[in-house]
Write a structure and sequence with these properties.
By secondary structure, the chain is mostly helical. It is built from five helices and no strands. The protein has one domain. Keywords: Membrane, Transmembrane, Transmembrane helix.
Length: 159
């Protein structure tokens, strides 16, 4: 397995994905502020949450990159199109499972069933994160497929 590639390129791909999500949010393409959502898991201060959330996402991305690297090694092949397929699977799980389950564990996120007495400050993402805008699923899909393509192009597999 390409351990050095995983360590370097996983970090590069994750930083690029996170930066692209932040740029898309700042450009008004989505209201999903992923560093804020992740960071408010551990702190309620929004400025600190964005910094902490950025690093939480980097760490999570390294974990996913390890999964990609292992899958490429098991298949004895790393290609851009295989990375794109993995990115598609990755985003499908994120949008249909991980994000919709967040309100159940996030201390500062409302749920779809939260009543008017809720003190949560974050809106729940909903299925496909559509509560953060209709373009959110497309933006999220594009950046995750690019993440997979980058890893498919840069990671090496044993011959």
């Amino acid at each position: 397995m390409d351990w050095a590639g995983w360590a370097v390129f996983g970090l590069v791909a994750t930083a690029a994905l996170t930066a692209a999500m932040i740029i898309a949010q700042m450009a008004g393409l989505t209201r999903l502020d992923l560093p804020l959502v992740l960071g408010t898991l551990v702190t309620e201060d929004p400025d600190r949450a964005r910094v902490v959330g950025f690093f939480i996402h980097l760490l999570s991305g390294q974990g996913f990159a390890l999964g990609y690297a292992v899958a490429f090694a098991l298949l004895h092949r790393a290609t851009w199109w295989l990375g794109a397929l993995f990115g598609g699977l990755h985003v499908a799980i994120a949008l249909t499972v991980i994000l919709p389950l967040l309100p159940g564990v996030h201390p500062r996120m409302a749920s779809l069933r939260a009543g008017p007495s809720s003190t949560a400050v974050l809106e729940p993402p909903g299925l496909f994160a559509l509560n953060y805008g209709v373009q959110t699923p497309a933006v999220t899909a594009v950046v995750h497929v690019i993440y997979g393509v980058v890893l498919g192009l840069l990671l090496r597999t044993p011959s």
